[in-house]
Structure formats: C-alpha cells, structure tokens
C-alpha cells in the first residue's frame, strides 16, 4: 500500500458541499465531520464523540455547536465540550480534535497533522477553478483502491489510447514520448507530452469545433500529494500558438486505507457562454472518470489476489508515476 503522507494539506470537499448539515468524510484514515457556522465559516472536527465514540456526523447541529446524537455531549467549533448531560461539571479532557481548514479555489483543504505546523501559504493553487473568464464542470467519485493507483493512472496518460478511446484517447497519445522533470524542493513532478500532429478526440472536437488534425500539448504538474493539474493546449495543425486552453484538475485524497476520493474538474476559457459545451464536457468527463473508476476497482481486486512480492515491469511511460511514488515515499517518511 502507498504510505500515507501526514503533515500535508488535502482536499476534503468542494466548498459548495459544506453547509448547515453535518457531513462525514474520512481522510488518511481519520473520520472527520464537516459543517458551516451560522456565519458561514467551515469547521472540521474529529467524527468521534469523546464519551462512547458515537459518530458526531449522526448528531444535531444546534447553532454553531454539535450535540452528540447518543447522550448529548455538546461541542463548539474548536472541539471543546461545552455541555454534558445531567451534571454541571465538564471533564477537563472532554474535547475532540479540530482541524485547520483553508477555503480557496472552490476547494476546502484540510491539514492532516500537527495543527501548529499548518501553513496556509503552502496550499497549492488551482486559480482557474474560480477565476473570471473560466467555466468549470466538476464532480467527485470515491474509488475502492490504494490512492497510489490513481496517482499512477493520472501521471501516465498513455492509458487514454486504450481505456478512453473514442473519448479523449487517440493513437498518438500512447505513441508520443514524454519528458519528466522533478522539482524535489517544491514537491512537484512535471510530465509533458507534445503531439505535433494528432487526431482530435471527440472531447476536443465537440468542445472546440475543430474537425481536422490537431497540435495537442499535455503538460502535467503534480503537486504531491494531493493536487494534479493537466494544462491541455489544443490548436489546428499549423497554428503556432495554442488556440484552446483547457485546465484539467484532479485532487487525490486518500480516505480509509484502500479508498480514495477522486475530485475532478474541467475548466475552459473558450465558448464560456455555450451551455451545450458545458453540459457536454460535464457528461463526457464524468464518463471518462467512470472508465478510470471501473479500471482501478478492477486493478485493486486483481492486486489483492496476487501473492505477496509480485513483480511489476516498468517502461519509459512510467517515469512520471515512478517519480511521483518516490516523492510520496519521501513525504511519508519525513
Ligand atoms: N513542461 C513543459 O514543457 C511546459 C511548457 C510550457 C508550459 N508548461 C506549463 O504549462 C502551464 C500553462 O502555461 P501557460 O498557461 O502560461 O501557457 P499558455 O497558455 O500560453 O500555453 C503554453 C503551452 O501551449 C503549448 N503550445 C504552444 N503552441 C501550441 C499550439 N499551436 N498548439 C497546442 N499547444 C501549443 C506550449 O507547449 C505550452 O505548453 C504552466 O503552468 C507551465 O508551467 C509546461
Ligand atoms: O488528456 C486530456 O486532455 C484529458 C481530458 C480530460 C480528462 O479527464 C483527462 O484526465 C485528460
Ligand atoms: S457517545 Fe456521545 S454523548 Fe455518549
Ligand atoms: Fe484515465
């Protein structure tokens, strides 16, 4: 299993998902309850009551406090217990952990680690998700696999040719070599594949209106451990500047061991008023994501049935994924 890297920021939800209803998510194996205060501030607490460990997400939100649904221990936004039933003295140790949160670019980021070390300026940015002039479609799918399998999947887009043919894949994706760069200091892995003359897959022909062959550049930036950006640049062959810019964002958040949240988004700065294009990209990308979900569920079940110590065989296309795995191992070991 890919080790969990603590002392890091992770996307726990889209901002729009968090409201005045208690919501449960598990990140790096930690059960967490999320809600918004009456003033609109997002709060994340450990989702286990200190009394008998009842899930607080199955409780009542009363004003800005959570009243445990089992015996009524009441917690404020800092996780401090402010009332217990049947007595006025509150035990000094009656508190649950409160997690640092940052809301930015339409994501709610949570710090998993020592709260004193949470540096908000270290949250990686995906400005296109909310920038004026850009339109975004998005969603989230949970997958029953090691989160490292989703990292591998996204770092090696040669699979588009085989798994996503007729959607985003064409023969040129698998045929074109990649370049890989590692910025160990910044914690970023970059993988680029520049296709000078390629078939235009339906994802781009139907969104851009191009009907001939294209120049297609895929520039990946993986900000380990959670944020993945694919800068996609498309133009008709012969054009010497990119005409169509699409930013594909994934946030890869480990849930319980063997589970991952796959947050996905597609942003564009062309045809922004065209509702048909928006609807097409939302539907089409969801289908693409489900092709990956199905493959990764299947792959995890196959790996689970393997005897220990099975051998993998890597080739050139795996350079980005291998660099990402090394970076994750380094973050987890720190
Ligand atoms: N690793 C690389 O090779 C590489 C190169 C350039 C940019 N990037 C990354 O891409 C991100 C986006 O950059 P930006 O928004 O400033 O640049 P941009 O929107 O001006 O696009 C520049 C990109 O378009 C590509 N491009 C140029 N002409 C093209 C054409 N005719 N058809 C298709 N693609 C074409 C370039 O290779 C480059 O990737 C940046 O974050 C940068 O780090 C990576
Ligand atoms: O390679 C691409 O252009 C592309 C498009 C949409 C996706 O969801 C994706 O993962 C990749
Ligand atoms: S378990 Fe929460 S009050 Fe008893
Ligand atoms: Fe895929």
TrEMBL record:
Gene Ontology terms: biological process: methylation
Rieske domain sequence ranges: 9-110
GO molecular function, one term: oxidoreductase activity, acting on paired donors, with incorporation or reduction of molecular oxygen
Keywords from the named record: 2Fe-2S, Iron, Iron-sulfur, Metal-binding, Methyltransferase, Monooxygenase, Oxidoreductase, Transferase
Protein name, as recorded: Vanillate O-demethylase monooxygenase subunit
């Amino acid at each position: 299993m890919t080790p969990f890297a603590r002392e890091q920021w992770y996307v726990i939800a889209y901002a729009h998902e968090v409201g005045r209803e208690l919501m449960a998510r598990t990140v790096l194996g930690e059960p967490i309850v999320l809600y918004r205060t009456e003033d609109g501030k997002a709060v994340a607490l450990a989702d286990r009551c200190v009394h008998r460990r009842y899930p607080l997400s199955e409780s009542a939100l009363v004003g800005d406090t959570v009243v445990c649904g089992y015996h009524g221990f009441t917690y404020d936004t800092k996780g401090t217990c402010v009332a217990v039933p049947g007595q006025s003295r509150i035990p000094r140790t009656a508190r649950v952990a409160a997690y640092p949160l940052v809301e930015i670019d339409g994501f709610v980021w949570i710090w998993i680690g020592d709260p004193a070390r949470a540096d908000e300026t270290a949250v990686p940015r995906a400005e296109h998700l909310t920038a004026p002039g850009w339109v975004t479609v998005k969603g989230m799918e949970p997958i029953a696999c090691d989160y490292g399998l989703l990292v591998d999947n996204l770092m090696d887009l040669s699979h588009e040719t085989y798994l996503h043919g007729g959607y985003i894949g064409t023969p040129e994706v698998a045929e074109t070599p990649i370049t890989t760069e590692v910025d160990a200091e910044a914690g970023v892995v970059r993988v680029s594949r520049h296709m000078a003359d390629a078939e235009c897959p339906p994802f781009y022909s139907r969104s851009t209106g191009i009907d001939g062959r294209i120049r297609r550049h895929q520039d990946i930036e993986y900000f380990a451990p959670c944020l993945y950006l694919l800068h996609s640049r498309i133009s008709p062959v012969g054009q010497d500047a990119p005409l169509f810019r699409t930013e594909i964002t994934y946030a890869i958040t480990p849930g319980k061991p063997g589970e991952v949240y796959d947050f996905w988004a597609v942003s564009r700065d062309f045809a922004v008023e065209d509702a048909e294009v928006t609807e097409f990209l939302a539907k089409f990308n969801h289908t693409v994501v489900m092709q990956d979900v199905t493959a990764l569920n299947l792959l995890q079940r196959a790996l689970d049935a393997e005897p220990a110590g099975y051998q993998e065989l890597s080739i050139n296309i795996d350079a980005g994924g291998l660099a990402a795995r090394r970076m994750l191992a380094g973050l987890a070991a720190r």
